[in-house]
Every structure is written in structure tokens, then in C-alpha cells.
């Protein structure tokens, strides 16, 4: 069996997120889905795997079903495949943030940077007056990144605030193009920079995964593999599994 793996998120007001946990868990159990889901007042984030038809039913329920009442009608979805189930079980967790930054001013429902489609990304990052910024953790960057990208050398995304305060200057860095695995960390990071007075902040829509899915390898400015937070470990162009063993990484998974 070929499993369908779906990474997704949306920032949306979910004041009833605590009450949504058990209905969401039950719905996933009925579809025999496994993976990790995060619910918070600011939205939903997760990666889930199962039979292709089950994943399709899950995505339809989130976007159009009664459970969320149309509040997740703008989901960012990226789907790939796996030859083996990449998750051992289903986890549905409640969080303060669906991606932890710890800055109340960074509210993606109010403002985010300018989205850049995968097809337009190469031209943007080739510009000499653009600072290209990888917002992921250091061990992810070590596995692969875009040519010329700055590595903030952070152990967890929550440290991005300190990096920005120490290394980024609105007067000096007038145009910033950032990227992450699926796009969610850039939503928070771009909102944070805009709140601090940065004028031009761009981010790769759909993240590295969308880029690897859509941009031909011959035209790619990506080098290496893209770490993913499941048992596949890393993906390459066309979202193909790289088959790396987790013990080869020598790093803890810390998003």
C-alpha cells in the first residue's frame, strides 16, 4: 500500500479549540489516520498519513465540514507519498501556539509578509539586494538549504526573536526573503519582522516542500535534502523519499 502524507496548517481564530480535540481525534480514528495534530486558539497545524481516500476525506472535513464550520477554508496543504506508514500513532495536542515563537505582536491573522510562488522564488533570491533567510533549526539547515541562504544557527524556532534582534536591522536589511519546510514558521517570522518595522518581507508560499514539488531539478537552487518530521526523515525533488536512517542524523528532532 502507498500511503498519502499530508502536511497542513492554517492560522484562524479557534476559541473553541479545546472542545475540538476529541471530535477531531475520533474522526481521524474512524479513518485509520496516524500523525501529529496541533490545535491552538490561533489555528491548526499537523502532518497526517493514511489511505489516499481517507486523507481526502479528512481534508474535506477540515475545509468544508461542520466540525470547524468553514473556519479552515484556506488551508495550506502539501501532500506526498510513503511506502510505509511514517507515523506510529495518532497524537492530537493542545498548544498555546501552533508554532512557538512567544511574540504576541506576531499575529499572522493580522499581517504577514508577501507570499512568493515557487515559480517566482529563484528570481527573488537571485537579486543581490535580497537577504535570503532560512528560518529552520540548525540541524535542518545542515541537511539542505538554498544557495546563499543565511543560517540563523538556532536550536528551536523560539530563538528566532533573539536572532532577529541581534543580527537583523530594518535600516540595513530592506528586503528579506525567508523560507521554511512548509511555510508555517515563515508566517510567524514575517509577522514578527513586520511588527518590528521591516518594510519588505517575503516568504516562499508552501515552503520548501512546495518548491521541491513544483520546480524542476534542473532549474533548482536547492541543495541537499529537506528534513521532514516523520519517519521518512528527508525528501528530495518531486517529494521523493531519500531513505536516510534517523540515527544517521545525530540530532534530536526539535521544531
From TrEMBL:
Known function: Catalyzes oxygen-dependent 5-hydroxyuridine (ho5U) modification at position 34 in tRNAs.
Domain of life the protein comes from: Bacteria
Sorted UniProt keywords: Oxidoreductase, Transferase, tRNA processing
Lineage: Bacteria, Pseudomonadati, Pseudomonadota, Alphaproteobacteria, Hyphomicrobiales
Name of this protein: tRNA uridine(34) hydroxylase
GO MF annotations in UniProt: oxidoreductase activity, acting on paired donors, with incorporation or reduction of molecular oxygen; transferase activity
Domain (Rhodanese): residue spans on this chain: 126-220
Reactions the enzyme catalyzes: uridine(34) in tRNA + AH2 + O2 = 5-hydroxyuridine(34) in tRNA + A + H2O
Matches recorded under NCBIfam families: PRK00142.1-4
Pfam families hit by this protein: Rhodanese (PF00581), UPF0176_N (PF17773)
Keyword tRNA processing: yes
Enzyme Commission number(s): 1.14.-.-
Species of origin: Bradyrhizobium rifense
Uppermost EC category: oxidoreductase
Similarity comment: family membership: Belongs to the TrhO family.
Biological-process GO terms, alphabetical: tRNA modification
Gene transcribed to yield this protein: trhO
Amino acid at each position: 500500500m502507498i500511503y498519502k502524507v499530508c502536511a497542513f496548517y492554517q492560522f484562524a481564530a479557534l476559541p473553541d479549540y479545546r472542545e475540538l480535540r476529541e471530535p477531531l481525534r475520533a474522526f481521524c480514528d474512524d479513518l485509520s489516520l496516524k500523525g501529529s495534530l496541533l490545535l491552538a486558539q490561533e489555528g491548526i497545524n499537523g502532518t497526517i498519513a493514511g489511505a489516499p481516500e481517507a486523507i481526502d476525506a479528512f481534508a474535506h472535513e477540515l475545509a468544508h465540514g461542520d466540525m470547524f464550520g468553514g473556519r479552515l477554508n484556506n488551508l495550506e496543504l502539501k501532500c506526498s507519498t510513503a511506502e510505509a506508514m511514517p507515523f506510529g500513532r495518532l497524537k492530537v495536542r493542545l498548544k498555546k501556539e501552533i508554532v512557538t515563537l512567544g511574540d504576541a505582536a506576531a499575529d499572522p491573522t493580522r499581517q504577514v509578509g508577501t507570499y512568493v510562488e515557487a515559480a517566482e522564488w529563484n528570481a527573488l533570491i537571485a537579486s543581490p539586494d535580497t537577504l535570503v533567510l532560512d528560518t529552520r533549526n540548525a540541524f535542518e539547515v545542515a541537511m539542505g538549504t538554498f544557495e546563499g541562504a543565511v543560517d540563523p544557527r538556532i536550536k528551536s524556532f523560539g530563538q528566532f526573536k533573539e536572532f532577529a534582534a541581534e543580527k537583523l536591522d530594518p535600516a540595513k536589511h530592506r528586503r528579506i526573503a525567508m523560507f521554511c519546510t512548509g511555510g508555517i514558521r515563515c508566517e510567524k517570522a514575517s509577522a514578527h519582522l513586520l511588527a518590528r518595522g521591516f518594510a519588505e518581507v517575503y516568504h516562499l508560499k508552501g515552503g520548501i516542500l512546495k518548491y521541491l514539488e513544483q520546480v524542476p531539478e534542473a532549474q533548482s537552487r536547492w541543495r541537499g535534502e529537506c528534513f521532514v518530521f516523520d519517519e521518512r526523515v528527508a525528501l528530495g525533488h518531486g517529494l521523493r523519499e531519500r531513505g536516510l536512517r534517523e540515527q544517521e542524523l545525530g540530532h534530536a528532532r526539535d521544531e
